[in-house]
Write a structure and sequence with these properties.
Layout: E1 3-5, H1 15-19, E2 30-32, H2 40-46, H3 51-59, H4 68-78, E3 99-103, E4 106-110, H5 120-138, E5 142-147, H6 151-160, E6 166-173, H7 179-186, E7 193-199, H8 202-214, H9 216-221, E8 224-225, H10 232-249, E9 257-262, H11 267-277, E10 282-289, H12 294-301, E11 303-304, H13 328-335, H14 340-351, E12 356-357, H15 362-366, E13 372-376, H16 379-393, H17 399-411, E14 418-422, H18 430-437, E15 458-461, H19 464-474
Parallel strand pairs: 4-14, 5-6, 5-8, 6-7, 7-15, 9-10, 9-14, 10-13
Antiparallel strand pairs: 1-2, 3-4, 11-12
The structure holds pyridoxal-5'-phosphate (PLP).
Residues 118, 120, 151, 229, 262-268, 319-320, 400, 423-424 line the site of pyridoxal-5'-phosphate.
């Protein structure tokens, strides 16, 4: 399996060659040259597989240059009930992603039982093991540099903690995350994890990361890399649970389903799109946004109009607060019948601060065949959905999952089973849960007093030089 760039001007690569990198050298995103197809006979066999066996079946179609025994060992080590159960005893965690039925035909697929209580652990835990494997083989090291306002940074740290050959330097805005989020990250004691709290906002932290990444000499000398949501291996790991959820919600492979996906950077739902292109019977992919509705606008109007950061709102589903959707280019490449010159044209408009409009083109007429529906949700909707789900089913959902469920129930075709992806546990967003339900969400066992653990964090002014000095001082083996 070879991977090509959505911008068409980069050489084709294999899975392990793009594993540790980010964007393609031409600025595009990597996608398989062709999507592997799943036959009816394969679907019938896959229906009864365990999560790890299913992950192996799916991922061996993509990671064709990793020897089968190695890939199997990496997957078996990743998808175990011990990693994905959080000490909870109220579901069958041998399933890894248990399906919770609210009522006939309405389900929640639990994806947030990993160590940081958000769906990002599903892919990130695999990435940690894949990175360690690849670096080991290449006798190489990698220093992951990132900025976070919450979920991504903690998922990356819990995936990389203690891994050979990997260090994580994670910047976060000092005093701007919840006490729980801070405790989650800063209480890690592994020597390869470096938490840096920046005196400033998230954007200041992000700018520092960009400045370091743009210093190509520094980046090369200190082997700086990232694990952001455009990483292809992350997307491919997410394809697996679309299959798992489908099998759990249906009796036979003749049935079709609707998925509802709380969306930000379009990474999660992009995996659903690919599962569908592989032949999984998904009739509807329902995209849900919060008040930051750039994607909902596209699917309703054909106009893709990224917002400036000054038009990006801080909401009560903060992990969906995006100004542009970094994985959306992958879908557009398919919608444009893989015409890379068209992608280049559209993204040159976007990167110049503009927009593009497909309303009057053949692409708009092609769009329905991809199965998308969309809608948005706001703070009041979110509270109402959390409250109604609690009252009706005694199930507590987090604000992001509530956005997905609200839009999913609105947009679903009534003849289809609806599977709403759970993207975080309510325990991560106590404040909003208290506002909706006047009660605190339960915490998974072992996390009750995480705020009291000793914390390890470096507080730093928002100066690029300080960051470079700190990295240089903590990457001793590379200062040759
Ligand atoms: C990251 C995240 C999302 C958005 O997922 P994308 O892949 O960026 O679309 C939604 N909910 C939660 C809780 C998240 O952490």
């Amino acid at each position: 399996m070879k991977y090509i760039s959505t911008r068409g001007n980069a050489p084709a690569k294999n899975f392990t060659e793009i594993l540790l990198g980010g964007l393609a050298p031409d600025g595009g995103l990597y996608l398989p040259e062709q999507y592997p197809q799943v036959t009816r006979a394969e679907l019938d066999t896959w229906r009864n597989l365990s999560y790890a066996d299913l992950a192996f079946a799916v991922l061996s179609k993509f990671a064709t240059d990793i020897p089968a025994n190695d890939l199997r060992a990496i997957i078996n080590k990743t998808y175990t009930a011990a990693v994905y159960s959080n000490g909870r005893a109220d579901a069958d965690f041998t399933q890894i992603t248990p399906l919770r039925t609210l009522e006939k035909g309405v389900h929640i697929l639990e994806l947030s039982n990993g160590p940081t209580l958000a769906f990002k652990d599903m892919a990130m835990q695999l990435i940690g093991n894949l990175f360690e494997y690849a670096l080991d083989k290449q006798h190489d090291e990698l220093n992951i540099l990132g900025a976070t306002s919450g979920d991504t940074g903690s998922a990356a740290e819990y995936a990389m903690r203690g891994k050979r050959g990997i260090r994580v330097f994670m910047l976060s805005p000092h005093g701007k995350m919840s006490a729980f989020q801070r405790a989650q990250m800063y209480s890690l004691q592994e020597k390869n994890i470096f938490n840096i709290a920046i005196n400033g906002m998230f954007d200041d932290a992000q700018d520092m990361v960009k400045a370091v990444s743009n210093d190509h000499a520094f980046k090369a000398k200190y082997k700086i890399g990232t694990v952001n949501s455009i990483n292809w291996a992350r997307v491919s790991a997410q394809i697996v649970y679309y299959f798992k959820g489908y099998f759990a919600a249906t009796q036979s492979n003749d049935e079709q389903v609707a998925y509802a996906v709380p969306s930000g950077n379009f990474g999660n739902i992009c995996a659903g799109h690919i599962a569908r292109m592989m032949g999984l019977p998904i009739a509807q992919l329902i995209l849900a946004t919060n008040e930051n509705d750039v994607l909902d606008e596209f699917f309703r109007t054909g106009i893709y109009r990224p917002r400036g950061t000054d038009h990006t709102y801080a909401t009560s589903s903060p992990s969906m607060d995006i100004s542009k959707a970094s994985n959306f280019e992958r879908f557009m490449f398919d919608l444009l019948k893989r015409d890379a010159s068209k992608v280049r044209e559209f993204w040159s408009q976007v990167e110049a601060g503009g927009a593009f409009n497909i309303r009057d083109s053949a692409s708009w007429r092609d769009l329905p065949q991809f199965g998308f529906a969309s809608g948005k949700s706001n703070h009041a909707d979110r509270l109402k959905t959390i409250r109604e789900t609690w009252q009706k089913y005694k199930v507590m959902i987090d604000p992001h999952t509530a956005d997905g469920l609200k839009v999913g129930l609105e947009q679903r075709r009534p003849d289809l089973p609806l599977i709403c992806l759970e993207t975080a546990l309510p325990a991560k967003f106590e404040e909003t849960i208290i506002e909706a339900l006047q009660r605190k969400p339960e915490r998974p066992a072992g996390l009750e007093s995480i705020e009291n653990l000793p914390q390890r964090v470096e507080i730093m002014d928002a100066k690029v030089e300080n960051l470079k000095e700190y990295i240089a001082a903590n990457v001793p083996s590379m200062v040759k």
